[in-house]
Amino acid sequence: MRTQENRTIDYLDGLERDKIFMQVIKVGQNQRFARIWSPYKELQYTVESTIQKKQSDAVQDLESSLRKHKADFISLLQNPAKNAAHREVIRKAYKEGLPVHGQQGTRLLSQQFIQEALTLSDLFDLNEYAAVELLMAGESQQPFFPGFKRGLVAVLLYYDGRSSLVSTLRTLIQARKGRTWSLGLPEDILSVIMNFTVQLMNEGLATKILYLMQTLDVTKELDRLQSPQFRALGSPRHRRQVADKIKEIKLTLADCLFCWCCQSPLSKTDTQALISYLQTADDDGADGTLSDVTIRLLMALLYSIDPRVPEDEQGPGLPKLPIFIDPSYVPSLTDDILSDKKWTNQGLHGIIQFAWAITLHTLSQYTDLQGVTEYFEKDEMLVDLAVEQDVFSFLRNSVLGNPGFHSEEYYVRQMHNIVTDFIVQMPLKMKEMRNRGDETSRIILANQQNGLEPPAGLRRDFEHFLFLIGDLYMKDSPDRELALEFWYLPDSVVTGTTPAHNTPYTYRPPQRQISLYKFVRLAGDLLSPPLFIPYLYMLRGLANGHQCAHHCFNLLQNNGIGGGSQVNNVSWDHFFMSMHQYYTNLRQELPMTSDLAHVYRHRHRAISSQEVDGLIAVVQLLRQIAFWDDHARLALCENPHWHLLVVLLGLVSCDIPAKLKAELLHALAAFCKTPDIAATLWQSLEASQVELEEIEARDEEFPITRGFLELMNAITDNSIPAGLGSGYRVPGFAPYLEFLRDNILLKFNTRAYRNPAEKWEVGMMVLEVLYKILADYEVSASDFLDQPSEVRGETGIVTNKRPGFILMEHMLNDSNMLKMILYIIDEATKMLDKYIPFPGKEHLEQAALWCLKMIEATCNKQEEFLNALRESNSDIIVSQMDKLLMSINRRSGKADHLVNLAKYVTYNSWLIEHALSAVHILSLVSSSPIVYPHIVGLFTADQEISQHILHGFVECLENPEEPEDLDIDSLTIAEDTSAGQIRNATRQEILRLILCTLNQPAPNLAHYLLGFEIRKPVVKSDLQDPGNLFMV
């Protein structure tokens, strides 16, 4: 499992990346020394730059820095102690002065400064001299934090210093040589890091980390900060930054142990301490998922007790791991894990029991391991105990259910190892669990036939295990291809001769792979109805990726009629025969009316809820395979016996539940990845005349709308046929566009939603489709001329305009569509400025980006559009976008649309595309005579907003990343565009904005951005404090 892939050094995942990194760590440049902040920033910079650049000539600086700060690592996060004598000196500093680091003589301190410093000392139980230094550093850093007083900045610097120290520790541990990854460091640097980290661990580092994590309670820390005694939290922005820093410190501490365990296991004593910590862990989320910290420590333990050794380190004798070397390791941990001590979270106990059972079974294969063989016999008992505690359900819901689980590759790999080891090494337990699953299924079916509910307490462990496998691989990155280990087909056996020696050979997949594929096949044999959905769910997860989807397609095809005399109920033939039968029956029941909303007043008599769930599972599996496998898409659609597109679209038109109809639309969207199929689907859509029902609004759930939007998004990736709808109606895309604009975009904000996040998801999806159409539009003079058309023999009908033309017309008018776009931009700034999490935040951010891009695309095209309009003598009336952006915002009563656009520059730390789009829009409109006389006044009307906007531009220009080439004139943000490219494109766009506005009448936007005093003549301006562009 060894890889050369670097783990990310910077794990900042807060709403803001505080601007105290590269530009602030250069201590000595207009900055104050603070012993609990600036030295740690220097240390962090030295360590990270040495490891990233991998330069051996920096090894002396690295060794010197580590030696200097060794005491800081040993006494991790312990503040310099308070001192009564120092406190007295500080109290008298208003008249006697105080020596300041880096300055000659003494400095008199104001009474207010002294009081603030002593408050900081009491707040953090910090030495008084260190508190003074911290407050001075906060004072010097104020320009980087507009709107924050020096005390609030000092609080941020305090936590940032602690974060830098633990981040440096994590970086050192990540760089260690070990069994999981390698950073490819030179031997001299690696030797320094290995020796230093081993010394720290021998000094009890693991115990210190666990103690710190146990005592660091984020909620209590924030409560103390905001208590009346200290009032150390300011605006929502400051509160969020502080909270993120505290959370980051705790998470980084956990990551230190995780990284260590990945590379080399902990000792027996430290492993027992880790188990004791997890025994009392109680910081689960409100939804039952484990917190990021708990998951990180859990995975650290799983890596630590994993006896797996890389192939290149395997050799004669036992591996040199604590579990093999320490004869008391296995007995002690077995006793701890089997002890009767109460666990705060029994699910965690079950996971550890399950993992330890697999470890014991693995150890039993080492014949040289003496003195502990009696403990190996407890592996099955441990599995039984774990299963009794619903370990598979807990893993699925509480571990894999954590939103960040699948973003960490080494979490997924370890869970993959545990699951596959269980299948391969303990086949008898698997068979036993399957037999119990079959017995449970028979009981459920017998009760259903008698109209009874299944008895409570039935064991469904096999179902949960199948669901666990599905979730593990379904949400994983397909690039890792972990699920490929489950696939093996007979044609994988290759027989041939070597080219050089003409000697015969036969290649067979590893026995492990054969065993896993056998599990997949046997799990689907003689499948009882209650296991049907879990099995398909597992297949859906195992079909994640191009090769996996192709293998799954072949499995379902081979299970069909051609594979034997009887059709397997898990086969394409069975799936599509059943779907066709449902379609035929439902079509016969459809009333002869075009008002499909009326249909929903009837009960779904032809299909039961169990059948609906089964069909949904089938359609979801179909969608997964069609999404990933090009060959499967063509094969499925071209099969003359299945009539796939006709059946899928036909079912959408039938009286079926909304959730099934939505899944059918999602599946159709997956088939649109093939252009030929998309073209066929356009024709089928027109012929089917599918309509969307208003039933969704009454249910306050909109799955069909989301399915339709995904279909529109996928099908418009290919060109829209020019004669779309010919023979049925006036040709063109206009009816679809009208529905997208009027029925979805203009109504989504006023509808009630059971799930608040769905509101912004719908808005995001419809805006993505509209932006794509607008961006692809190329202005043509023919668009302004009416084109005659003939529909069913009727002449004199005007052909619908191209959809891009229609959107441009609406964007260049004070239309309801433009008002909605400006509303979303405004609403997003209001929500984001609160700096608190809310449902649908990511969807709102993405919706705001599409709104910005729509305005940007309109600005790019409007000159050509207006020129074509003038030449055509058309009676269409439009306005310039710059004029529309200067109109009054109905929500605020001010002309602040440009201010709202500029606010997105202040979110540049995490919304990098938004910042680039906003700057580009300002560049496009700033030269307009309608805009430039007023834009500076708009930006400076509110002093606080003005400071934040100016600082946002400064942050963009002070981007520390290395410049990367990117043509910003033709910028299209592709998936492979790096964050560095986007940030540097933003930097270039700002410089272009300054150059373009520099010659405009003063005071102009360039003067504002360059920090001139705009309330008096520019020539009389003085240079301002750091924080404006003069410092660049």
TrEMBL record:
GO BP: nuclear pore organization
Pfam families: Nup192
Major place of residence: nucleus
InterPro entries hit by this protein: Nup186/Nup192/Nup205
Cellular-component GO terms for this entry: nuclear pore inner ring
Subcellular location(s) per record: Nucleus
Molecular function via GO: structural constituent of nuclear pore
Entry keyword set: Nucleus, Transport
PANTHER family associated with the record: NUCLEAR PORE COMPLEX PROTEIN NUP205 (PTHR31344:SF0)
Family: Belongs to the NUP186/NUP192/NUP205 family.
Name of the molecule in the record: Nuclear pore complex protein Nup205
Organism whose genome encodes this protein: Paralvinella palmiformis
